Amino acid sequence: MPIAAVIGAIAVLLACWASVAQPARAQAVTVQAASTAGAAAPTLVTTSAGALEGVATATGAEFRGIPYAAPPTGELRWRPPQPVESWTGTRAADTFPPVCPQAPPSPSGSSEDCLYLNVTVPAGLADGPLPVIVWFHGGGFEIGEGADYDPAKLADAGAVVVTVDYRLGLLGFLAHPALANQPGGANGNYGLMDQQAALRWVQSEIAAFGGNPGNVAIAGQSAGGLSVLAHLASPTAKGLFHRAVIQSGAFALVQKSLADAERDGQASATALGCDDQSAECLRSVPVESLVANQPLSITPGYVDGTVLRESVGTAIATGRFNRVPIVNGVNTQEERIFTNLGLSVTKGATTVLPGPIDASNYEATIAANFGVDQKTAARIASAYPLKKYPSAAQAFSVLNSDANFSCPAIVLDAAASRYVPTFAYEFNDAAAPERFVPDTLGAPTAATHQSELQYLFDLPIAPIPGELSAEQQQLASAMREAWVQFARTGSPATDAVAWPEFELRHPRVLSLETPAPEVEPRFAADHHCGLWAGVALFGAR
């Protein structure tokens, strides 16, 4: 397929996701009376860098655009995040920050000066400090921002919620030997370094907002979920959090070596006109050129020897990780949203499918997608016979979801449960409104990538309108309570959700569905995980 067609297909997906972020920048700040259900949340807070004035909302208070690191511009481009400079007087925290550079551009603009976070505090603070949930947004490490997610309802369940912006694309993940502090030194994982800087900010500052720095849960979806996995595996994140929630994040359990990443980085430098491969040239490249020359798929972190010393799957499987309780889950048919767009997320990389899938090219598409021989493709196809599905596209979507998301998730559950309390889920509400990409695959529908987000956060700027039914609102409330309960205690079990721990001898996965969640004991069998383990498409090395 011509490279222009590949770029065009990727752009469709990015545009769908980016449309979530764009209108957010234009929203006016509305100061509302605080909830009368309890004491009003404070809007004036003093941090070690200076005072902040947030805004009162109907459910508490928000502090928007708080700097957690110095602007990574000029000589600080492609360097670890540096401390924030203090300010005098009171800094207004009533406006969301610029988005980190990404494509397509936000109508309100973007800036390399984008290392900011937002804090949402509920009204009626309890006698003691509240648990903290730190949210890392998804978007393939290429697009998105914290302001895409309105966490007011999640916070109202009893937590202080922090959403984080971090460097994306080449600015966040370019690995190049010229950028190392010393020959052969670590480089490339700047976006992950940013996230850890935000976690250090939480440790030092969140008490002023009513949060408990000794009770921090990190959570994220898709690239954000993989970020959570990276911090579990990262020795430099030790002690910065106490719980971990991974939503649709187990799709890349193996990371590139630094040597491979640096070879890719040198190719990027050449494409940017830096034939001399120097840091000086790279730091002089206009940000617009960096965005325009964005690779098709950003590798989710590198084994750089510092932030990551090994792949995340290896770290979890061997117990060499930050041992905290884990919630890990997937949605029923994660790849459905990508199949609708003619894309596939396989082995952590987004690729374009060869073309429309039908009975005549079903096995050939499987072989091309997974890089397997025809015999293996036929074995996979026999486990997903076309007669069981209304179309070849639906069959492919199901098998691709099992291979790339569902089965890696159960591998992760099995590995983590040997060392820490682990709680597994599958979000299974087939009637969840599609808020991001129109579904063209037809009935039967299924929950897909991003479907669960609207149950945890309000998404008023999602490109497709959608309302939850009364039963779905009940499920959403139960999920928010479970997430906060997990942040508070290390177990997501509540009066509304009896959520059992995942154990190797009892591999129970909680199905989040209406009218009420229930345990599904045959998750691995239902998703053909024995087949995929034999094909060896996932796992750690």
From TrEMBL:
E.C. number: 3.1.1.-
GO MF term set: hydrolase activity
The entry's keywords: Hydrolase, Signal
UniProt domain Carboxylesterase type B: residue ranges: 43-520
Keyword flag Lipoprotein: no
Taxonomy, superkingdom: Bacteria
Hydrolase found in the keyword field: yes
Group of enzyme by EC: hydrolase
SUPFAM superfamilies referenced in this protein's UniProt entry, alphabetically: alpha/beta-Hydrolases (SSF53474)
Pfam families: COesterase (PF00135)
Annotated signal sequence range: 1-26
The family this protein is said to belong to: Belongs to the type-B carboxylesterase/lipase family.
Descriptive protein name: Carboxylic ester hydrolase
Lineage: Bacteria, Bacillati, Actinomycetota, Actinomycetes, Micrococcales
